[in-house]
Structure formats: C-alpha cells, structure tokens
Design a protein that fits this description.
about 30% helix; about 675 residues; alpha/beta; five-stranded parallel β-sheet; 27 strands
Length: about 675
C-alpha cells in the first residue's frame, strides 16, 4: 500500500495516512490519499511568487519548448502509464485514449504555439484601431499573462488527459498550474506529475500537485487566479457559487457531464452503410472507458420507424462485448473506476426506468472474464428504450457508464427539440448522407452544443469519432454542460491571458507592443534593410522606393504573359462601365510584383526567403499612366530556433497623389547573423 505524495512548495509532501483507494478490477487497496497538513494558501502563494515569474520570463516559444519536452517525456514512458491504467479498469485501447491524448495535447500546443504565436511575451490582437482623424491617436488590444495560478479540479475518468489538456494552454500562457486529481484515480495522475517533476523540465513552481481534498484552497483564490473544473453539473454549480469565485470574480470554467445525443438520419435504412455507422458509433461510445466519458452518447435519437431496428442491432452488438479484467486481451470493456461509481450508476439506471425500459443488460448482473464481478467495479452495458419520447428522465438523468437510451423522433424539428431537452451538451452527432437533413439539425441544435459531428460516408474515412475532443477544437458546452470552453487551439491559451485595450500615439504604441504602428517613426537612413541580419535589424527600418510609372504596355504585357485577360485590364469600353474603375486599371498582382521590384535588394544577403503575404488589400485603382511608390517598413521581428528568424514588413503602395493603392504584410525569413559562419548555417 502506497500513500500518495503531493508536490507543493518545491518539495514532495507525504501524509501519514489517508483515504483508501482500490484497484477497480480486483478491489484490492492500492493507495491512500490525503491532503491533510498541506497549507493551501502557501501552495497558491508559491505558484504566484515563484512559478509565475519564472514562466513569464520566457517567451511563448520557449514555453512551447517546455510543453514539447514534457510531452516527449511522457510519450517515452507511456508503457508504464498504460500498465498503471489497468488498475483504473481501462483496457489497452482505453489507456491509449487517455495517455496518448494527454501527451498529444502537450505536443499539439507546442506545435501550434510555434506557428501561431510570436516569439514574445505578449500577443498583439487584431488591427490597430484609429481613434482620431489625424492618425496620432490609436488603439490596440494586447494579451498578457495573468500573475495568478491556474487551479484545475479533475474528474476520475481521464487521469492523464484531463490534467494535461488543462496544463498545456496554461503553460504556454505563462501561468503556473496546481493539479487536483480525483481521488479514485489519483495514483495515475500522481505518476504523470512525478515523471515531469523528477525530470526537472519546468521552472520551479510552474507545476504543483495536491492529492486528496482541496481543503480550503478555494478560500485563498484571488482575482488573477483561475479554476478549470471537470465533473458533474451539480458539483460545478456548487464550486461556481463559492464566495471567493463570486466575490473576487475569479475566472471559472466548467466542463460538466452532459446528456449528449446522436441523431440518425431518416435516409439510413437498416442494412445501409449509414445505419451500420450509427450502430457501430453508439456501441463504441457505450463501451470505450466503460462509458465513463463526459462526451459519451447518452441519448440515441432515431426516426420513430427505426427504433425497433436500432434496438435489435445495437443489442446484438452489445451481446458480443466481452467484459472483464482489462489485462486479458480478449476483454473489450473493463471496469468502472470504483465500486462507488458502480453504485451511483445503478441508482441512475433505476431513476431512468421511470421514463424508459431496459431492453439489454442488467445493472445488477454481468458475466466477466478473469475477474470477480462483485469485488471489481464491473457492470453490463445497459440499453434502454423510451416508448414515450416526451418522458423527462431520459433527458434529465445521466447514468455515467455504459448506458444509453434509444428515443424516437418524428421529423427534423422534433429531433432538434429532443436534442435541446438535454439543456446543453458537450457534443452531439448526426449520422446521415442527406445534406439538407444535416444542415437542418446542425443549425437547430448548435446553440445547445459545444461541438457537433456530421458523420457521412466521406467523413467516416477519417473521423476521430463522436466522443473524441481534439486540441484544435473547443471542448465545452452551454447550459448543463458547464457553460465553459477548453482546448480550441489558442482560445484556451487566451483564457489565461488578460485582454487589455491600449490607447496611445503610434510612437508609444510601437514601444509597448514591440510592433511598428503606422504613424510611428521610420528610419530610412543607413543601408538597405535587406542587407541587415536579424541582430542588426530594428523595428521601423524602412526603404522607400519609386516612383515607377505603370504604362498601358505594362498592363497589356502582364495580361498576355499571365493569361489574366479580365476585361477591367484589357477592354477600355467595358472597364469604363464598371462603377469601381471607370476605365482600364492595372492588375492587382502586377502592382504587387512591381512593388517587389522596387523594394527588393537583389544581392545575396541575410534575407533568405519570402514565405507569404498577409492582409493584402487593394484600396485605390492604379490606372495606366499613374506612378506608384512603395514604403517597406520592418514591423515585427520574431527570432526562431536555429539560425534564422521571421520578419514581418509593413508594405504600403501609394500613387502620385499620395493616395493608398494597396497595403499588406510581407513575411520573410532572415538570418540571425551575417555573413554566415558556413554555408550550412544558411541551409539549417
């Protein structure tokens, strides 16, 4: 028997005793858990005063490197975590879902951060907003790290993925994390944190672990802290109303268990590919993790005329599911997380039978392989049928396990209405090849869902499934589902950052953001900016080139050479009838090409590549005979790993009257030093 340690204040803390935790399969005691003796105020203070400053010293890219290192470490140790997952009742497939999903979230956020956030400590969000007529008073939104702690309170069903999908965005945001795992599976979370801590990957104070009760932790929360909760809707409501949360406006996001539904389209006749996809998905969602997923299908909404066929087909598939010791390769569904969870599920099933009847399985009996059905937390898959779709219980009672209820609907509007009776869900799905039906249901059900999957023949080839949250997409939902959001790419990172509107003149705004603002000083003296390495380049370095007169011959040649013979460039009579042009005009891409010819310094130098153009807008037509001038200004410098960095150049093209013709950002890769020490430096 092991007493689980907490990691707080920079050291491991072991209580003298604690609450017993049992193996979900054998019923044997495997650990004791307690937080007695931990000073929760000190834990929060350590996060804020030690962990926070250490993380905020790093840029987003440097924090991404930490996330990548942690994810890589856990991937290398996944076999150990798989083995320990057996004690939670998880099969090998269940363990991969949890463990791989956990380190995958860290790696995904590391990768996205490098692509989507600057190598800086702040995020500049959106365009500069003009606040005055003369351009000398402007506004800009910025995002900065909060000097608080990210407290996470996790559920028992995903002891690896749950903490890590919350840790990843907080780590990227530069906010220290305090992990509070659910007691029944805390031993697995504890091992994950132990691996990360013992490897010394993160700055001190960036990650702490509290095993056992949260105690008075919430009493010490402050305005810059945040809480991310996963669990029941009832617990979420209780925590949300805590005096500290309410009185100090502490950011609180909840991802709560919900009555998710899956809708079968009327086009899916028994025996069809769509019908089989639906049945397979429903059985999968009932049995993966023994149905202990907040995203599992609790309500199977099917056309009223297909209820019998769906019940028969799903029951036949469930009869083939082998329940038992997940260490046995023949077992397809393991145990619930513990005996308490089984008793709670039995009570919920009993409540459901007030509005539906059991058509497969028995909550009190199950045949198991290589295990004791009573000592282990085993239960049979349970399928119910609601003969009266309007009954309250199937839309209000969640049995957190391998349980689902088949409910018939009349038409698309009825399906939407039944879906909405769940009062808010994390996810829903529509299985159909009928595009009109899919659109009708998705648009009607979307306000009640955080995520919706449309599973047709095309999507089925690569679909990750109804119940699989992905780092790139939001995980959360309205109403009963908690009203919060997790994941969703950078949205989750921004949850930990403070959005602030800064009003200033262009010069000051440039100084604050580290990003050149139109109206700020330009430096046109000295050598051409393309001859400068990243170390030499400065924000505001500018080259002004031109004017160049664009002739009718230029326009005609470009049209013939490229094949772009659109009438506005080639037919004076037709172009004169165009209300926007009033005559022939130069091609937009001719203008961009000529601009490059004006501002480029052609010699071999530190600018290694142009890899794109952002925010291209054509403002004023350029007609044959007009003269164009271009100003190229160093707008943003973002060092990268290796021997180069990225430079964003503000580009403005004007005509002979000073009117803006086009604006855009040119993106280049620039060597950090020049000349290179060796040819390989340029190629790396």
């Amino acid at each position: 028997m092991v007493v689980l340690r907490s990691y707080v204040g920079g050291s491991w803390f072991a209580p003298s005793d604690g609450r017993p935790v049992h193996d979900a399969v054998t019923g044997d005691e495997i650990a004791r858990v307690s937080s007695d003796g931990i000073d929760m105020a000190a834990v929060l203070d350590y996060a804020r005063t030690v962990g926070g400053p250490g993380l905020r010293e790093l840029t987003f890219h440097e924090r991404a490197a930490l996330a990548k290192a942690a994810g890589t470490l856990l991937r290398e140790n996944r076999d150990e975590l798989y083995a320990l997952s057996l004690c939670t009742g998880a099969t090998a497939a269940d363990a991969r879902f949890d463990v791989d999903g956990g380190f995958g979230a860290l790696l995904a956020y590391a990768s996205r951060t490098k692509r989507e956030l600057p190598n800086d400590r702040i995020v500049v969000e959106g365009p500069v907003e003009p606040l005055g007529r003369g351009g000398c008073f402007v506004g800009q939104h910025i995002l900065t790290s909060k000097p608080g702690a990210a407290v996470q309170v996790n559920a028992f069903n995903f002891p690896v993925w749950g903490p890590l999908e919350k840790l990843a965005p907080a780590l990227i945001a530069g906010v220290p994390t305090i992990v509070k795992p659910a007691t029944p599976t805390a031993y697995l979370t504890a091992r994950v944190i132990e691996l990360i801590v013992e490897a010394g990957l993160l700055p001190e104070g960036a990650l702490q672990l509290v095993c056992g009760s949260a105690g008075d932790l919430f009493d010490h929360l402050e305005e810059q802290d945040s809480v991310s909760f996963t669990g029941s809707a009832a617990t979420a409501a209780r925590l949300r109303s805590h005096p500290s949360i309410v009185g100090r406006a502490v950011a609180f996001t909840a991802e709560a268990d919900s009555l998710n539904c899956s809708v079968l389209g009327p086009d899916a006749e028994p025996g069809s590919a769509g019908f089989e996809r639906y049945v397979e998905q429903l059985v999968t969602e009932m049995t993966v993790k023994a149905g202990q997923k907040c995203t599992a299908i609790r309500r199977a909404l099917v056309p009223a005329g297909l209820v019998d066929a769906v019940v028969e087909s799903v029951s036949a598939r469930l009869a083939e599911v082998t329940v038992g010791n997940p260490a046995d390769p023949s077992v397809q569904m393991g145990a619930l997380a513990g005996l308490e969870q089984r008793e709670e599920l039995r009570r919920a099933v009993k409540a459901l039978t007030a509005g539906a009847r059991i058509v497969f399985g028995d909550p009190d009996q199950v045949e198991v392989v290589d295990a004791d059905a009573e000592r282990g937390a085993f239960v049979s898959p349970i399928l119910l049928r609601a003969d009266d779709p309007s009954a309250d219980e199937p839309h209000a009672v969640e049995a957190f396990g391998p349980v689902s209820t088949v409910i018939g609907y009349r038409d698309p509007a009825d399906a939407v209405a039944l879906a909405a009776r769940g009062r808010g869900s994390l996810v829903g799905s529509v299985v159909t090849d009928d595009a009109d039906f899919a659109r009708s249901v998705i648009l009607g059900a979307a306000p009640w869902h955080g995520r919706l999957l449309v599973l047709d023949e095309q999507a089925a080839a690569e679909s990750t499934g109804h119940g699989s949250p992905l780092p790139a997409l939001v995980h959360g939902g309205p109403g009963r589902a908690g009203g919060g959001e997790e994941l969703g790419g950078m949205r989750a990172v921004f949850h930990h950052l403070q959005r602030t509107a800064v009003q200033a003149g262009p010069r000051m705004l440039t100084a604050v953001t580290g990003r050149w603002t139109p109206g700020a000083e330009r430096d046109t003296d000295g050598p051409h900016p393309f001859t400068k390495s990243l170390a030499e380049l400065r924000i505001g370095d500018t080259v002004v080139a031109g004017p160049r007169t664009v002739t009718l011959e230029d326009v005609q040649h470009f049209a013939e050479f490229t094949g772009d013979t659109f009438y506005a460039h080639t037919d004076e009579v037709a172009a004169s009838r165009n209300p926007f042009f009033g005559g022939r005009v130069a091609h937009g891409y001719l203008i961009v090409a000529f601009a490059a010819g004006l501002f480029v310094q052609p010699d071999f130098g530190p600018v290694l590549a142009n890899y794109g153009i952002d925010n291209l807008r054509f403002v004023t037509p350029l007609k044959p005979g007009d003269a164009m001038t271009v100003a190229l200004t160093c707008k943003q410098i973002s060092p990268r790993d290796g021997e180069y960095g990225e430079v964003r150049w503000d580009t403005t093209i004007t005509n002979q009257d000073g009117k803006t013709v086009a604006t855009y950002d040119v993106l280049t890769m620039v060597a950090k030093t020049w000349p290179p020490n060796s040819p390989e430096d340029v190629q790396s």
